[in-house]
Amino acid sequence: DDLNVLFIVVDDLRPVLGCYGDKLVKSPNIDQLASQSVVFSNAYAQQAVCAPSRVSFLTGRRPDTTRLYDFYSYWRVHAGNYSTMPQYFKENGYVTLSVGKVFHPGVSSNYSDDYPYSWSIRPFHPSTEKYENDKTCRGKGGKLYANLVCPVDVTKMPSGTLPDIQSTEEAIRLLNVMKNKQQKFFLAIGYHKPHIPLRYPQEFLKLYPLENITLAPDPWVPEKLPPVAYNPWTDIRQRDDVEALNVSFPYGPLPDDFQRQVRQSYYAAVSYLDTQVGRLLNALDDVGLSNNTIVVFTGDHGWSLGEHGEWAKYSNFDVATCVPLMFYVPGMTARPVSRGKRVFPYLDPFSHGLGLVPQGQSKKVVELVSLFSTLAELAGLQVPPACPETSFHVVLCTEGASIVRYFNASEEKVEEEKEGCDDAYKCFNEEPVAFSQYPRPADSPQWNSDKPKLKDIRIMGYSMRAVDYRYTVWVGFNPNNFSADFEDVHAGELYMVETDPNQDYNIYNNTSHSSFFKKILG
């Protein structure tokens, strides 16, 4: 039986969710999805910024292959005419639909969200998206500001709504259209929140009394953090409320009480997002498609909430690269339900307490670049071939292997397969790792460190995350020929996950790391 695909991607969402063990965040609808899904607790983006990450997972190629490290080039013109995941589904008879922020808008998707290559009809963008950065946040004396922390009365917003509410409504409309079409579909919906500004319906603040909000466990800049690794969170400094705090550049810190407010609003925005996901999945039940639709839920990258004295994305730390990732596959991750029975009844975060436990949790380290081949396999399409070493000329191939093999393998079983390998180096290579990277314009934080333009990139931080460590080298990079020089190492980081889960104690300088270095070159 042909399966539809509902692909949900959330902007700047780190795994602060009940189903990921977060005790504070109320996310009953996403938790309910997780309870019917395979959930990956070690999933990583390939670059912690919107456009490069999205182009990477939508093409199944790494940033060094898409050649997009900033926002200012279109891969089909500047790298190679790579097929995308929705394009592949479209070529295989699916109606492909895009709602909200799926591709990053602008030049990096040809000002068209890659239409008509990727989508059957013109992508939908909510009409109120254009007010996102306007002064819509009520401040002192009733004046309006463009704040970072921005709880709002939705009825007083332009058109009386918010972009994510409009996206949910459009996606539900499309589900109803497709129900009658008898044609299989790939519907992608990109939610904006919790991307800044943290603008969400003010009632969600009630879920998070300020006295329950703590600071990050490590709100200081680590002593041995190389300056090149630090991101100075320039984007949030430009918001009116942060600007008024007059925080010193680049290390800050933000005042403690304001840190708590940012964390509170991030969580509130996540709960608001959860209600939108809940309404969408409830509609999937309403149209009777929960039994034959794969649901994927993920984010484009994480977001620091004060860890290491950092905010926003733009780094190689777990808090910036780790994302939620779950797959609901009817008949595989969940038993089919009888007709008329609901899989995803809407859950109100104001009345639903503790989340449900995920169906299957995998600690395997996986990458978003694997989404393309994984979804192809789950939908029963031919899995695109693995890319050759250089693949600029190859239209259809992927640099991320399908992770379906981890879906029902108990962790032990996969371990055993490894025992049987004769070539020691290959054995070493079998343990999955995730690669992320981040460009910098200079060795120390400056105004454009977070988002350097291609021509200004001088250093590339290549980072490798295994189950038990994160290893990063910052090496010279030449933007004219896109080449990294691994002999020109500017700085390094090594964190052992078991003893240092928050990545605060860099032991790069007191450890021999030649084996890691070989592997990152491999």
Please compute the radius of gyration using only Cα atoms.
22 Å
Strand content: 15-25%
CATH superfamily: Alkaline Phosphatase, subunit A
- Name the structural class: alpha/beta
The spatial strand order of the largest sheet comes to 3-7-1-9-12-2-13
Number of helices: 14
CATH class annotation: Alpha Beta
| Number of structurally distinct domains | 1
Distance between the termini: 40 Å
How many strand elements? 17
CATH topology: Alkaline Phosphatase, subunit A
Report the principal-axis shape.
globular
Helix content: 10-25%
Mean pLDDT comes to 93
CATH-derived architecture:
3-Layer(aba) Sandwich
| Low-pLDDT ranges | 410-429
Q: Based on the structure, what is the oligomeric state of the protein chains? A: single chain
Q: Tell me about the biggest sheet?
A: 7 strands, mixed
